[in-house]
Structure formats: structure tokens, C-alpha cells
């Protein structure tokens, strides 16, 4: 007889009352029976709390001030008791075999610490859904060596496709609240500390709509993504030393997005420039130039010169530019 661990389904929500009922209903409608459902409301101002109340004691509510997705993950995990944790965004759905599938994969592979699946996209109805077309490698994944070298495999799982053994998530959470909205922090951290299973089974549904923070970048949210990448990279560097090279690449990608859309604002500069100084000028400028080209590095110099000149960083940056024959 297979082991039947307790499972916590954690739904994070902010002002998605119009979708929340579907998410809760899908969580409660699981074939697997040893589970709890926790809704973390991140300071909603719509009808979300009324929706939660309509389910009575079938679910647990964690109510908090608005602090972003990271703080919601932290609060939900702290309130949970399950040996397995499944995350669900409040605008998405689980299929009825989601939890049983995750438990089966964990039981069949006792050495893995996580199980991710690739949610199927849908719009106004489940029948309209179609999976993404990107190719990835399914099955058992051990990306620890790849990540330590500064690269990572393609993992198409959104928040609603992320499930973990509790002991794995305990090594990752709490995640820094400053990140606010970025489930990639949890994904990359998990890949760096444990082997896992990337499932080809469709057991989750991701709703695509105008409010998606990261899936729909055409909706003018590239700056949001750049901010999230920048802060995620810095936090990964601080928390997981083995990810130093990957973290630097992520920071550089975030800087590129920000510089292409208005520059690095004051709030981010207080995190960014101390990090760059700690990494070392030659190291980060080389990685940045490789990611974006020297023209972007010149823009960063100009942005820093206009807004800050602490510790002579501008002069050192200009020397790097001159060494590359690009300073005019």
C-alpha cells in the first residue's frame, strides 16, 4: 500500500474575487482526500472575502495586509501542516487528479524534492484551452550542476504547477518580501537544492487574461518583469551561494529590461549598486555586456552618473568602457 501523505493546497489571492470561487472549487474537488485548502488573501478590496466565507469551514483563511505574492507564499506555508505543498493561483484551476498525481510521482521517486507540471492555458472556458508549444525535457530532472555553471533548464511551470515536499520548501521559504511577485525564485531555488520531476501530465489549468503579471508581456509589463528579475537575482545570490553565476545573469537580464524602459529607479538602486560593488566591476560588467551589448552598459553608466556617484563607481565604469573602445 502506497504512503498517503497529508497535502496542503495554498491559494494566494489579491482582488481576484471573480475567479476565486472556481479555484477553491477545483481544490476541494480532488480525488485524493487527505488534504487541506488554505486561502491567503493579500489585502483584497473586492468581494474576495465574501467568496471565501461562502465555503465555511471547508477551507482556512489567512488574511493579511497587501505585501505581494512572496509574502503570501510565506504566510500560507507558515499556516500549513501538509507533508506536501501544492500552490494554486486564485485565477487558475486544478483538475480533479492533480493532488493524486503529485503524490504518485513523489511516492514513485522517493529521492525527489519537488514535482512540477505544465499548466494548460485557457481563457473564458476550459474547452478553449491549448497547451504551450515550447519544448522541454520531462521526467526526472537534476539541474544542480547546470545551475552552478550559470545556466538553467527550461521549466514551463507557472505557480499553479508547483508542488513540493515540505522539507524541500522549508529550505526555500520564507522568501524575501522585497521580490513581491515572482514564483521563479521558488522554482530556481528548488532546482538548485534537489532533484525533481517535471510532469508531462495536464493536471493544472492557467487562465490567460489581461491581468496576468508575467505571461502576457505584450500588455506593457516588461518593466515589472525587469524589476522582479533584478531583485530575484540579488536575493538568490544572498541566499544560495551555489547560484552566484546564475544570479548574476538574472540581474543583468533585469537591468537590460529596466534600461530599455526608463532606467533604474531610486528604490531599486539602493539594492542594485551595493550588489554590483560586491560582485566586482570586471565580473558584472563582462556579464552585462555579454547579455546586452556595450551600448546598454553605457546607458547604465549615464543613469548612474546622473543619479549617484558614490564610491567612484562611475569612474570605474568609464574605465571599463574605454578598455572596450566604446566610450565617446
Topology:
Blueprint: E1 7-13, H1 17-28, E2 35-42, H2 48-53, E3 60-64, H3 69-79, E4 84-89, E5 93-94, H4 98-108, E6 114-117, E7 120-122, E8 139-141, H5 144-148, E9 162-165, H6 166-169, H7 184-193, E10 196-199, E11 204-207, H8 222-239, H9 244-259, H10 266-279, H11 281-292, H12 294-307, H13 313-323
Parallel strand pairs: 1-2, 1-4, 2-3, 6-10, 7-11
Antiparallel strand pairs: 4-9, 5-11, 6-9, 8-10
Helix pairs in contact: 8-9, 8-10, 9-11, 11-12, 12-13
Short description:
The protein is of the alpha/beta class and 328 residues long. The chain folds into 2 domains: 7-216, Spore Coat Polysaccharide Biosynthesis Protein SpsA, Chain A (Alpha-Beta Complex); 220-323. It has 13 helices and 11 strands.
Amino acid at each position: 500500500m502506497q504512503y498517503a501523505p497529508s497535502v496542503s493546497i495554498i491559494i494566494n489571492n489579491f482582488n481576484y474575487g471573480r475567479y476565486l470561487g472556481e479555484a477553491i472549487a477545483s481544490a476541494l474537488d480532488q480525488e485524493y482526500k487527505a488534504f487541506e485548502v488554505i486561502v491567503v488573501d493579500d489585502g483584497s478590496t473586492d468581494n474576495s472575502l465574501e467568496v471565501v466565507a461562502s465555503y465555511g469551514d471547508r477551507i482556512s483563511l489567512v488574511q493579511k495586509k497587501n505585501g505581494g505574492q512572496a509574502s503570501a507564499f510565506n504566510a500560507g506555508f507558515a499556516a500549513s501542516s501538509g507533508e506536501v505543498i501544492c500552490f494554486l493561483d486564485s485565477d487558475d484551476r486544478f483538475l480533479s487528479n492533480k493532488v493524486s498525481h503529485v503524490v504518485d510521482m513523489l511516492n514513485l521517486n522517493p529521492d525527489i524534492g519537488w514535482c512540477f507540471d505544465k499548466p494548460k492555458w485557457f481563457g473564458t472556458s476550459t474547452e478553449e484551452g491549448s497547451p504551450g508549444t515550447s519544448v522541454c525535457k520531462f521526467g526526472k530532472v537534476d539541474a544542480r550542476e547546470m545551475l552552478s555553471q550559470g545556466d538553467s533548464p527550461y521549466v514551463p511551470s507557472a505557480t499553479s504547477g508547483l508542488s513540493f515536499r515540505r522539507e524541500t520548501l522549508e529550505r526555500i521559504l520564507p522568501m524575501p518580501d522585497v521580490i513581491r511577485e515572482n514564483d521563479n525564485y521558488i522554482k530556481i531555488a528548488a532546482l538548485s537544492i534537489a532533484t525533481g520531476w517535471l510532469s508531462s501530465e495536464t493536471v493544472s489549468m492557467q487562465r490567460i487574461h489581461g491581468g496576468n503579471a508575467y505571461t502576457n508581456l505584450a500588455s506593457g509589463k516588461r518593466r515589472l518583469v525587469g524589476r522582479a528579475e533584478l531583485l530575484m537575482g540579488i536575493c538568490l545570490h544572498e541566499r544560495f551561494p551555489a547560484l552566484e553565476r546564475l544570479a548574476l545573469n538574472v540581474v543583468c537580464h533585469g537591468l537590460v529590461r529596466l534600461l530599455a524602459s526608463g532606467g533604474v529607479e531610486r528604490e531599486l538602486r539602493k539594492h542594485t549598486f551595493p550588489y554590483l560593488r560586491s560582485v566586482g566591476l570586471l565580473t558584472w560588467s563582462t556579464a552585462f555586456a555579454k547579455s546586452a551589448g556595450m551600448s546598454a552598459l553605457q546607458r547604465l553608466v549615464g543613469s548612474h552618473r546622473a543619479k549617484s556617484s558614490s564610491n567612484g563607481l562611475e569612474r570605474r565604469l568609464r574605465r571599463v568602457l574605454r578598455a572596450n573602445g566604446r566610450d565617446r
